[in-house]
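Q: Given only this backbone (148 positions), what sequence would you predict?
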């Protein structure tokens, strides 16, 4: 586990928490996208969803998610700062995600987040975001988001 000033560690955890709050709101794409660098890579391929390069690609993905879902809730724990180099850091966490789609389908996933972060000015932004499998994925995940 890496060491970092306490303020930086809290800011990195807050970035991951802010992501969960933004994706759970299902209403403000720009608030969500502001957590990432312009050229960020979001790689969800480990759980059977796409890898996306650049804001235009993941904007389209999240617009679809927001349009399809009525509810999202994410619980995160077991934060681990894997690396810290002043303006670059990698943070991990365990995640339980729950959702209900507009067609009544439900999904519960147990995954791990990895965020490779960069400090821009006074803010941390995510430049590479991975969702790694934890428990086996339910079929409903692909039914809801598989066509993105």
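A: Predicted residues:
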């Amino acid at each position: 586990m890496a060491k970092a000033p306490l303020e930086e560690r809290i800011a990195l955890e807050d970035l991951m928490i802010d992501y969960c709050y933004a994706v759970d709101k299902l209403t403000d794409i720009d608030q969500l996208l502001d957590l990432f660098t312009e050229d960020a890579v979001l790689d969800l391929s480990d759980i059977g969803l796409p890898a996306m390069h650049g804001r235009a690609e993941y904007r389209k993905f999240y617009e679809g998610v927001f349009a399809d879902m009525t509810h999202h809730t994410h619980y995160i724990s077991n934060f681990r700062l894997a690396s810290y180099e002043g303006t670059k850091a990698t943070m991990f966490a365990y995640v339980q995600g729950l959702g209900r789609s507009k067609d009544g389908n439900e999904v519960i996933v147990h995954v791990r987040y990895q965020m490779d972060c960069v400090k821009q000015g006074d803010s941390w932004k995510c430049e590479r975001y991975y969702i790694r499998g934890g428990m086996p994925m339910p079929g409903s995940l692909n039914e809801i988001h598989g066509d993105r």
